[in-house]
């Protein structure tokens, strides 16, 4: 029983072919396409309002040089939210519960921000490794600590997203299993458990959106340090 709880996180395959590529491609077909009409429909208007609000909020404190990342980070935000939300549907697979996929998102973005800082502002980028006013004896130790913290950033991005989604899915499955087992034995308790499951599902929807936002927000903060 303990192993079956983790079967939902296994990458699905068909005839030995991994289907994670299909799971990553499907969300793009669900987005409304831009229209050439003067007036858009409600769904397209809502999407445009969300993109504009998110872009203004994220890139307001960033220098104009960093605004080139607006399309990339906004697309990543919408993509992660869609993947996380689709994973809550029955008989679906959540690709963002795979640490390898999240690291594939986190490492290139983090590395790009670091390389941008080293190319355009090398002194400012290296200054983050040594806080101002550090005593002479602590300089080697602090440089090592700051370097380790710098390289831990992409790992923290990937692990945070993976751990939060995995924990939420496991908790939902545990409570759903408990409600199913308790239904013939104690119907009243099973109904209360089902209500708790509904509330937890609503909470998980909020967590999915927040985790996607936090992922992109942290990348924008790394970008802000280097532009």
UniProtKB/TrEMBL annotation:
Broad class of where this protein is predominantly found: mitochondrion
PROSITE patterns linked: ATPASE_A (PS00449)
A Pfam short name: ATP-synt_A
Entry annotated with the keyword Ribosomal protein: no
GO annotation, cellular component aspect: mitochondrial inner membrane; proton-transporting ATP synthase complex
GO molecular function terms noted in the UniProt entry: proton-transporting ATP synthase activity, rotational mechanism
Keywords linked to the UniProt accession: ATP synthesis, CF(0), Hydrogen ion transport, Ion transport, Membrane, Mitochondrion, Mitochondrion inner membrane, Transmembrane, Transmembrane helix, Transport
Reaction catalysis annotation: H(+)(in) = H(+)(out)
Coiled coil: none
Residue intervals passing through the bilayer: 69-89, 101-118, 138-159, 171-199, 205-223
Entry-linked Gene3D superfamilies: ATP synthase, F0 complex, subunit A
Topology in the lipid bilayer: Multi-pass membrane protein
InterPro entries: ATP_synth_F0_asu (IPR000568), ATP_synth_F0_asu_AS (IPR023011), ATP_synth_F0_asu_bact/mt (IPR045083), F0_ATP_A_sf (IPR035908)
Subcellular location as annotated: Mitochondrion inner membrane
Similarity remark: Belongs to the ATPase A chain family.
Subunit text: Component of the ATP synthase complex composed at least of ATP5F1A/subunit alpha, ATP5F1B/subunit beta, ATP5MC1/subunit c (homooctomer), MT-ATP6/subunit a, MT-ATP8/subunit 8, ATP5ME/subunit e, ATP5MF/subunit f, ATP5MG/subunit g, ATP5MK/subunit k, ATP5MJ/subunit j, ATP5F1C/subunit gamma, ATP5F1D/subunit delta, ATP5F1E/subunit epsilon, ATP5PF/subunit F6, ATP5PB/subunit b, ATP5PD/subunit d, ATP5PO/subunit OSCP.
Name recorded for this polypeptide: ATP synthase subunit a
Native source organism of the sequence: Dascyllus trimaculatus
Gene that encodes the chain: ATP6
């Amino acid at each position: 029983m303990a192993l079956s709880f983790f079967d939902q996180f296994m990458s699905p395959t068909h005839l030995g072919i991994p289907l994670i590529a299909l799971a990553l491609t499907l969300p793009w077909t669900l987005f409304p396409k831009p229209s050439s009409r003067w007036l858009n429909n409600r769904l397209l208007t809502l999407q445009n309002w969300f993109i504009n609000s998110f872009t203004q909020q994220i890139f307001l404190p960033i220098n104009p040089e960093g605004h080139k990342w607006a399309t990339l980070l906004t697309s990543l935000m919408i993509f992660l939210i869609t993947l996380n939300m689709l994973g809550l549907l029955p008989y679906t697979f959540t690709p963002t519960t795979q640490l390898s996929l999240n690291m594939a998102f986190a490492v290139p973005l983090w590395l790009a921000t670091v390389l941008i800082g080293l190319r355009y502002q090398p002194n400012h980028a290296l200054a983050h490794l040594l806080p101002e006013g550090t005593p002479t004896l602590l300089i080697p130790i602090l440089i090592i600590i700051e370097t380790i913290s710098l390289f831990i950033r992409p790992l923290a991005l990937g692990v945070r997203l993976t751990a939060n989604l995995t924990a939420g899915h496991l908790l939902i499955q545990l409570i759903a299993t408990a409600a199913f087992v308790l239904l013939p034995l104690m119907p009243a308790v099973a109904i209360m458990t089902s209500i708790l499951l509904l509330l937890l599902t609503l909470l998980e929807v909020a967590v999915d959106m927040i985790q996607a936002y936090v992922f992109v927000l942290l990348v924008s903060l790394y970008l802000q340090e280097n532009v």
